[in-house]
């Protein structure tokens, strides 16, 4: 967990540094940051810059979806588990099922699946909790692979723009027969701007991705602790009422 937050902090610092460079350039030229950003976007070749922008939009869309989903799934299981244990101590299995069914989140879903098989024995309950826990883990990790794809695509598109810009620069050198700075400046600018924007997009998405990983790790830890508590509650129920 600590390593994830450290990595996210370093990425955020790198992104802030890049933003500061653009802001200083905009101030020096007397224009606003927003206007300078649009200018650089156009100068970086609309074809490649549009692809980088689409990558950012899609990546952020998946990040937002996962943030909402994980925040809704991240609940404090303490009260839920205590309520289930108290009801099971009274032998009211249906009441325990109702509590789990009426509570949102993966932990409540796992508890409900375990309680549904409480009459089949503790071993079946434990297997059910483990199996359904795997299903819930898969749902929590859903779409994270798409975010990693866009993190990889953004700098790759930027580097592709770099290669195209270099080719443009060499084409101009071949046409003019001269290697003066004015001849290659246009192609070099395209090359550098696409690379910068691609890296910035990757850094932004990486910050969100690390946040999602930390959130996911916390939920999975709660699920593991809750699973142990649920199995213990099932054992107490069998000792008290099925002995």
Structural account:
This protein is mainly alpha-helical. The protein has two domains: 2-68 and 153-216, no CATH class; 77-140 and 226-241, no CATH class. Helix content is 87%, strand content 0%. It has nine helices and no strands. It has helices at 2-28, 33-43, 46-73, 77-89, 93-101, 106-116, 122-140, 144-176, 181-241. The radius of gyration is 27 Å and the shape is rod-shaped. Mean pLDDT is 78; it is low at 1-24.
Order of helices and strands: HHHHHHHHH
Structural class: mainly alpha
Q: What assembly state would you assign to the polypeptide chains in this entry?
A: single chain
Largest sheet: none
Number of domains: 2
Instruction: Quote the average pLDDT.
Output: 78
A few lines on this structure:
The protein folds into 2 domains: 131 residues, no CATH class; 80 residues, no CATH class. Helix content is 87%, strand content 0%.
Key traits:
mainly alpha, 9 helices, 243 residues
Secondary-structure map with pairings?
Elements: H1 2-28, H2 33-43, H3 46-73, H4 77-89, H5 93-101, H6 106-116, H7 122-140, H8 144-176, H9 181-241
Helix pairs in contact: 1-2, 1-9, 3-8, 3-9, 4-5, 4-9, 5-6, 6-7, 6-9, 7-9, 8-9
